[in-house]
Design goal:
Blueprint: E1 8-14, H1 17-33, E2 38-44, H2 47-50, H3 67-74, E3 80-84, E4 96-102, E5 109-113, E6 130-132, H4 136-145, E7 150-152, H5 158-167, E8 173-177, H6 178-183, E9 192-193, E10 208-213, H7 217-223, H8 229-245, E11 253-260, E12 263-271, E13 278-286, H9 299-308, H10 313-321, H11 325-333, H12 340-347, E14 352-353, E15 356-357, H13 363-398
Parallel strand pairs: 1-2, 1-3, 6-7, 6-8
Antiparallel strand pairs: 3-10, 4-10, 5-8, 5-9, 11-12, 12-13, 14-15
This protein binds ligand DPM.
Length: about 400
């Protein structure tokens, strides 16, 4: 089997073009870390992929897009699984952990218009125009913002959806994750990017996570080299929030996270399905990555600081070039601790933060991020969010609602 051949790592992936692009991206990052390893991709079709015409909520499972892959992981047919992090339930099956959160792409939602609406925005679309989305989160927020627009489910992978948009007259526009569109190379189809006042993004949107068996220490240590600290902190906070809200991926919950000057700011909203009710709140915490052996800022020192943490050089370069200067500066100003040994010591055994094992990372900031997410969720629940989410859940479960779950 895979794990007995030291140099071969078998990587599980969904079969869609987007999933394959993401998996290949992760493999090339891993090759930068260790060129000696060989990789083989094992693709699988999940229940969620197979059933294209039914309300997935009626199947009554949360792991529709992960079950087959996780079974293969448990059976050691694969050594790791590459996921769009937002498709993973907030609670993983026993014996599974996230061993790596790679640098998050732009998490915002984007609008792709039908060619006949070229040059328009959601604001200038004619009244009654139909937006294609199966996300209760997108629908609720946009309905609230643009009550004159209509909504219709659309399913299938990204290729299918774009074809449905272009080749028929059913939809005026689609709402899709900017990250997915960009990975597919469809940047030119992104007509509008939605800010937090219109549509906050989904928990973990734009982030890619690698899932492994929790007892596979070798793999956990190896994959920890791909952890991106800010992305890790953001995902820990957002997932702790969603878990406390008991939302699952079908909840009308949007988030917005920002790390700047040692502060992490988290905003989240819980909405009724029609968008008429909304509890939106924010909270901040300080993220202190400093330690006695603090590095001076400046790219050279920073770079060596990261190398000391066994970070691959290439993704860092890419991050710098792609203009994520602010995130990068954020890390610079609060340099990472130099001594990996100390960090590992502090970290101790495999403590989990929102299902993520952050091997070799300092505990303090991870804990602060998790607390932030949980505390904001409690605040939202106590301020009317509980009733809103309960009603939304009931409506999705018991009425033959049009909305399909993801
Ligand atoms: C989840 C949702 C959707 C996906 C729900 C949501 C969108 C469903 C729809 C949990 N997963 O966002 O509120 O629009 O009908 C999905 C996409 C990506 C991963 C595509 C997309 C790519 C971006 C990424 C589907 N899963 O959201 O447009 O990796 O974050």
């Amino acid at each position: 089997m895979a794990s007995e051949r030291k140099t071969l790592i078998v990587v599980g992936s969904r079969r869609s073009e987007l999933a394959m692009i993401q998996t290949k991206k992760v493999i090339s990052a891993l090759k930068e870390v260790d060129p000696e390893m060989e990789y083989q991709i094992e693709t699988m079709e999940t229940i969620g992929d197979k059933i294209q015409d039914k309300a997935l909520s009626k199947i009554g499972q949360t792991n529709l897009f992960t079950k087959e892959l996780e079974q293969a992981l448990a059976d050691k047919h694969v050594d790791m699984i590459v996921h769009s992090f937002k498709d993973l339930p907030t609670t993983l099956p026993d014996g599974m952990v996230i061993a790596s959160v790679i640098k998050r792409d732009d998490p915002h939602d984007a609008v792709v218009f039908h060619p006949k609406h070229a040059g328009k925005t959601l604001r200038t679309l004619p009244t009654g125009s139909v937006l294609g989305t199966s996300s209760v989160r997108r629908r609720a927020q946009l309905k609230r913002c643009y009550p004159n627009l209509a909504f219709k489910d659309v399913r299938g992978n990204l290729n299918t959806r774009l074809r449905k948009l272009d080749e028929a007259d059913d939809y005026s526009a689609l709402i899709l994750a900017k990250a997915g569109l960009e990975r597919m190379g469809w940047n030119s189809r992104i007509n509008q990017v939605l800010g937090p006042n219109e549509c906050m993004y989904s928990v973990s949107q734009g982030a890619i996570a690698i899932e492994v068996r929790s007892d596979d220490n070798k793999m956990i240590e190896f994959l920890s080299k791909l952890h991106h600290m800010d992305s890790l902190l953001e995902c820990i906070a957002e997932r702790a929030l969603l878990r406390k809200l008991e939302g699952g991926c079908s909840a009308p919950v949007g988030v917005y996270t920002d790390i700047k000057e040692g502060q992490m700011h988290l905003t989240a909203a819980a909405l009724s399905l029609d968008g008429s009710e909304c509890v939106k709140m924010s909270m901040s915490t300080s993220i202190d990555l400093d330690c006695p052996e603090k590095q001076e800022s400046g790219s050279k020192q920073l770079f060596s600081g990261i190398v000391a943490h066994n970070k691959p050089v290439e993704p860092l370069k890419v991050a710098e070039e792609s203009g994520s200067q602010q995130l990068f500066s954020g890390i610079m100003a609060h340099s990472k601790p130099v001594g990996p040994v100390k960090a590992v010591e502090e970290f101790g055994s495999q403590q989990l933060f929102s299902g993520i094992v952050a091997h070799g990372k300092p505990v303090g900031p991870l804990k602060a991020a998790e607390d932030l997410g949980r505390d904001l969720a409690i605040k939202i629940l106590e301020n009317g969010g509980r009733e809103i989410l309960h009603a939304a859940h009931e409506e999705i479960q018991h009425h033959h609602h049009q909305v399909k779950i993801w």
